[in-house]
Amino acid sequence: MICVSKKKSYPKSENLKIFGQGKLNGIVEISGAKNSALVLLAASLLTNEKIILKNVPRLTDIEKMGNILKNLGVNLVERNNKLQIDSKNISIKELPYELVNGLRASFFCIGPLLSKFGEAKVPLPGGCNIGSRPIDEHINGLKALGAEIIIEEGIVKAKIKGKKNKLHGTHIKLKCPSVGATETLVMAATLAQGRTTIENAAREPEIQDLCQMLNKMGAKIYDSGKEKIIIDGVNKLSGCTHKVIPDRIEAGTFLIAAAATSSSITIAPVIPHHLEAVTNKLQESGSKITIKGNSITINPRELKSVDISTAPFPGFPTDLQAPFTALMTIANGKSKITETIFENRMNHIHLLNKMGARIKLRKNTAHIKGVKTIYGMDLVGSDLRSSAALIIAGIIAKGSSKIYGLEHLDRGYENFESKLKILGIKITREFNKNTFTQSEFKGGKESEDTEKYKVA
């Protein structure tokens, strides 16, 4: 979300300076999926043999997860975008708060640690402040698998009940198709005794990637990508080599940036069916989409307003809601953007309005009337996807913009500004040691529609 408190100050150490009204042209190389790589790193804890992960994006979130594994005793060797992971000497089963804080994906480690060692202590997870993301489904599922769990002073303490020191297969029905809960429970069930079924499971490509790697390691997982996943527990898992799938969110962000600037680009490598919800909406809004093998080419035409509503896969991804909102600010006509996944993920609206957009926010639906021009400003992004949306807004705006809060952007986009530069955008990362306060920004009073929503 976007920080707008007048009392808050921000480090001016880094910002992106963007010269607006740019055009993109060329081919974008899409990196490995952050959300897949993070859970695959956690899954490596399930074996004593070496795991080699290829196509791992170089991101601050990946670095944090790597530090967590090293703290547990994992030997990690990095070269370019390849990680060699050796977990045979794990000696600590408790994750330190100072490493876990701010990385929600760290909670994925609870399933492998519990299943392999019979116990685990994991601090409650952090991450972007975009709304409530409870871990009830994780906890209830682990209890159903035979774990005793208590939460004390922000620490989740889990232990397998009984003398066997082994989880047992069971039937789990999730109340909602939680991606994190599905991944946690799949990993925990791989070494459980007997069969586990997970109903109402999430179907995201990142879950399918996890299950594919686990099966390479010797797991017996069936029907990943469907609403019911079946896992037959095995005694042990072995090492493997696995390539992380392309990042569908990064791919979608570049397609949206191209549509916003009436630019033709090609993105590759991608798995096109992972992006169907996005490419369908881009086609509906006036772009021509051409799919050839593992590449997608976009040729935008007149930009028309379309409505979207976020939904679990295969629906429109919540992680692309903010970038798509930036696109709709300059579309012809009126559009509605509805966020159904996170209740506090519409706070980029206020700064888009300051740039000249015409958006009214009612509950979690943005009502947008397209304008011909938005204007460059100095802006602060304080969550990952809103930061990407602000950069897209800066690219299409008249004049120049400075985007701060790059610690969020660097969590999820590998070499974002470098890729934009290659495509022809005038964008520079600036460094200095000053700080600034919100009062330095241009712009008028917040609208009543914005004030109803919580901001950092």
In short:
This protein has helices at 34-43, 60-72, 97-100, 110-117, 136-144, 179-189, 205-216, 248-260, 276-284, 321-328, 349-354, 384-396, 406-412, 416-422, 448-451, and strands at 9-11, 14-19, 26-29, 51-54, 75-79, 82-86, 119-123, 147-152, 155-160, 171-173, 195-199, 220-222, 228-232, 240-243, 265-268, 288-292, 295-299, 308-309, 334-338, 358-362, 365-369, 378-380, 400-404, 427-431, 435-437. It is an alpha+beta fold and 456 residues long.
Portion in strands: 15-25%
Strand order of the largest sheet: 22-23-2-24
What is the number of domains?
Answer: 2
* CATH architecture label of the largest domain: Alpha-beta prism
- The pLDDT mean sits at 89
- Total strands: the figure is 25
The biggest beta sheet reads: 4 strands, mixed
Globally, the shape reads: elongated
How big is the Rg? 22 Å
Enumerate how many helices there are, as a single number.
Answer: 15
End-to-end Cα distance, whole Å, is 7 Å
Protein structure class: alpha+beta
Parts with pLDDT < 50 across at least 5 consecutive residues: 1-11, 127-133, 437-456
CATH topology of the largest domain: UDP-n-acetylglucosamine1-carboxyvinyl-transferase, Chain
CATH superfamily grouping of the largest domain: Enolpyruvate transferase domain
